[in-house]
Design a protein that fits this description.
Blueprint (H helix, E strand, L loop, with lengths): L1 H19 L4 H22 L25 H31 L4 H6 L5 H6 L3 H7 L1
Helix pairs in contact: 1-2, 2-3
Length: about 130
C-alpha cells in the first residue's frame, strides 16, 4: 500500500511540474493546484497508518493507551486544505482579471503586452467622473 501511495505522489508531482512548465496560464494554475494535492498526499504517505488504532483520547486517569493515532498529520493537512482553497480562489481571481484585461492566457502574449498606466485608468472613466475628480 505504501508503494502505491508513493507512486501516486510521484505521478502527481511530475504532472504538476509538467503543467506548471506550460505556456498557458490556466495550465500553470492547475499545476499549482495539483502540487498542493500532491503535497497533502505526501504528508499522509509518510504518516503512520491509522488502521487499527484508537483516537487520541486520554483515559480517566490521564494516561494514554499507547495505540493512539498521531493527530498531527491530519491537522497539518486540514490546515493545508484551507490555505489551498484560499490560494486557489485568489489565483482564479487573478486569472479572470488577466483574461478581462488582455483577452489572452498565453504567457508569451502576456509578456509582450504593455503594462497599464495611470492614463489608461483615466480613459476608462466617464466624463462626469473626470469632471468630479477635478
Amino acid at each position: 500500500m505504501t508503494l502505491l501511495v508513493s507512486v501516486c505522489v510521484g505521478v502527481l508531482f511530475a504532472a504538476s511540474i509538467y503543467m506548471m512548465m506550460g505556456r498557458e496560464l490556466k495550465g500553470v494554475a492547475m499545476g499549482v493546484f495539483l502540487l498542493g494535492h500532491a503535497a497533502n498526499l505526501a504528508i499522509i504517505a509518510v504518516s503512520q497508518s491509522p488502521l487499527g488504532k484508537s483516537p487520541p483520547v486520554l483515559q480517566p486517569d490521564g494516561s494514554m493507551l499507547g495505540t493512539e493515532v498521531d493527530p498531527l498529520p491530519q491537522a497539518l493537512i486540514l490546515t493545508a486544505i484551507v490555505i489551498g482553497f484560499a490560494v486557489q480562489a485568489f489565483l482564479l481571481t487573478l486569472l479572470v482579471l488577466t483574461w478581462r484585461r488582455s483577452q489572452t492566457m498565453n504567457l508569451d502574449d502576456l509578456a509582450r503586452d504593455e503594462a497599464p498606466t495611470d492614463s489608461d485608468h483615466l480613459d476608462q472613466q466617464t466624463p462626469e467622473a473626470l469632471d468630479a475628480a477635478r
